[in-house]
Write the structure tokens for this entry.
Amino acid sequence: MRQFCLVLLLTFSWVGMVKAQATGETAATPELRKTILKLDEDHDHGMTTGDVDSLERIIAEDVFQTGTDGKLSTKAEVLASVQSRKGRVPPTYNKHEDLQMHVYGDTVVTTGRSITVHKEGGKEILGPSRRFTIVWHKRGGQWQMVALHATTETQK
């Protein structure tokens, strides 16, 4: 019985190892996870506060960004939109849930759920929730967002 359990354990370990090698996916190191989460936080902060300088650094020149309206935007269009809203949007932040991170060499794909929270009169008002996919790529030693896609979740 002990031998059977050992063979079973080794078989499942081997299958998992082969699957990881076949996809090229590796686990995010704690340092990489911290770096990507900080970039995501800085991106959210830039988008909600109008910090165009931070976004300029984080978003790649050749980014593909698809908003919840289905519109594809360039980096210049994203920055112009953020700049135009600066000071006119109530204080907000994004609350992320179900965050997954997949690493493929110098590329990291994050997926998750985001809820925009507005603060008005001391109360927090939840906005619509969205599912998102962000692709980060390391260029010249710096991680940048090269793609973002967001879809508004339908109400259940």
